[in-house]
Every structure is written in structure tokens, then in C-alpha cells.
Amino acid sequence: MKHTNQMSNSNTTKSKKYYIMAILTIALIDMIAVGLIIPSFPYFAKKLGMTPKVQGTLGTLYGLMQLIGSPFVGRLSDRFGKKLIMYMSFIGAGVSYLVMSVADSILVLYLSRIPVGLLKQTNTISLSYLSTITEEDERMRYVGYLGGISGTGIIIGSFLSGVICNYSVELAVYISCAIYLLSIPVIYLLLPSDQELEPFKIKSSSTYKNTGKDISWRESLSIITVDHTQLRNIILLYSLFNLGGNLFRSNFSLLLAESDVSTSENGYIMSYIGVISLLANMFIIPRITLNSKKMVQVGSMIGCITMIIYSFITMDMKRVIVILIPIMVANLIISSAVTTDITKLAPQELIGGVLGVKDSIGSICKIISPLIGGLLIEYGCEALLLSVAIVYFTIALFVTITKVLEPNKKKQE
Known about the structure:
This protein is mainly α. Helix content is about 80%, strand content about 0%.
């Protein structure tokens, strides 16, 4: 009997390693395809006669579609299975880029952004898989690996896009479309179904007792926003962090334009940001031993101090390279800690819906932060940077004086 249990545990361990590698492989494929689109999309839109201002509305449309789709697609993954929604995400992206590749008008280009915005929730599903498969004390390490793999995919895809676009902008879009559609069999072969994840679900502790009844969308939203105080507070904390982070990220190019940084140097800096993110996710985040509360306190204070310094010095290429390191590392520390704690507190039967709500909040912040940032920059770059510093300080204060992210806190029953 003991030998049988040991064999069962060994098989589960092997399956766990295999499934984690499968999830990371699918994430890499996804981000390579995304990386192919990001650099080529502005040139593709320009060929159809879109001005930079009009191109910005495409980003807003995509954000709105993500806002609508994230919570519902996440909840669908809870009800119908993660694997099915991963299929849907890849098909939605493939169809969108197929439509984009044959777009001959601005209207068709707008329409092409709707399926990918509504249906593509690959990061939510990947996190949902990891939250089921991994133990709580190791989850942050794998969340870091997922971020690192995603960054690797973006770098590879962006590099390939640069090479391909020398021959044809449309070709980069065709290849991205082909990657998504041809990866459907790969998802079928590699990713586990929810039934195959049952051994891991048994080991996971759910925040709420599972009565066996199907939970409606309205009930799940009530649990997330009203009944579960700790989870609600962490999502509020994530909202604050996302607003501050997006205020800086979405207006970073404008900050560089106001500094002594050339257009070509701007492009190098964007690649440099990707490399910092990759290295931090792969080699720094997995090795941090602090609890989530201390991680957020440390990360937010690093961010606050860096933003204050940034606001009082004149930026050139060398200074930007130096100052981006603490900013990026601080953001990744906070993001990893908060995301990991959300997956720990979320009931397993609602994990997709919870992560969907989190992603919707991110979409809202992406929509409003360029508007807020633009207003602040009217008063000078210092106004924007000091505002972000205030957000970081507020995060540190909120975490310190409340019980959110309290270490070793038992989950609510």
C-alpha cells in the first residue's frame, strides 16, 4: 500500500513538471506571435492611412474589448474548462490577424481588433493553470517564470518582426495568424483537461467550501467584491498599483521625448526594458524569500524614491538606462506578490473569474492612464513623475496600516 502511494506521488510529480513545461511552452508560442504584431502594427495601420492619433483609438477599442471579455471568459474557464478557453483564445487571435492581413480599409482594421480583444485571455488561463498545479509556497517562482517566458517570446517575436518587415509588413501578420491557428493541435497534445487536474485540486485548499452546485456569474462577483474582504482588498491594491504603473508606462515615450533622448535611442530603450523584465522574472523574483507584504512594501518604496529622483534630474540615455532598473524591478516585485496572493485566496472554482476581474481592472487602467498622464504632463514631466511617486507611497502606506497581504493569514471559510 505504501509502495502504491509512493508510485502515485511520483506520477503526480512527473505530471506536474510536464504540465508546467506545457503551460510555459504555450505561453512562449503566444508571446512570439504577439511580438510579431507589436512592431509591425503601426506601419500596417499607416499604410491604410491612419494617423498616430487615430491609431490610438485602436488601442482604446482593444482595451474596451478586454474589459468586457476578461471576466466573462475567465468565468467560462471555471465552468467549461481551461483547455477549451485556451482553444478559444488562440482561434480568436488567429481569426483577428487573418482579418487584419486582408484588411483594405480602416473599418475592417477596427473590426479585426474585436475578436482578439474579447476572446484572447491566454495570460489569465495560464495563471489559472499554475494556480491549480502549483503549491502556494512555490507559486511565486512559477509566476516569475511565466513572466520571463512571456518576455522572451516578445523579444523573439519583435526581432523576427524587424527582419520580416524589411520584406513585407503583411508577412509578419500572416505568420502571426499562422502561428495561432497551427498551434491548436499543440494545445490539444500538451495542455491537460480539467479532469486531469483533479489530483492537484484535491491538494489545493479552497477559500470557500465547494457545495457541488454551479455558481452563477452574479454569485461569483458577489463573492469576489463583497463577501471576501481580503480578496477584495488585494484587488483594490492591484487597481492602485496598476494605475500608477500604467501612468508611467503609457506616458514613458512622452517623457523620453521631453528629455535628451533621440528617436532611435527610444527604440533601444524599449528593447532594454524587455531584457530587464526577462532577467528579473527569471533570476530575481524566483529567489526572493520575503513574504508578499514585505515584497510590496519594499517594491513600492523603491518605486517611490526612484520616481522622486527621476523628477529632479535631466534625463539622457545613460541615466535612463540606470534608472529603469529599479523602476522595472520594483514593478515586477509588486506585481508578482499581488498576483500570487490573488491566486492563493481565490476559490479554485472561481479562479478564472477572479483573474478575469483582475485583468479587467488592468484594462480600465490602460484606458484612463494615458488621459490622466496627458493632463499631468501639461504641468510638466515632474507633475506626472511625482504623481506616480505618490501612488507608490500610498501603496506602501495601505499595505502597512491594513491587514491586506498579512503573512500566514488563514483563508476565510
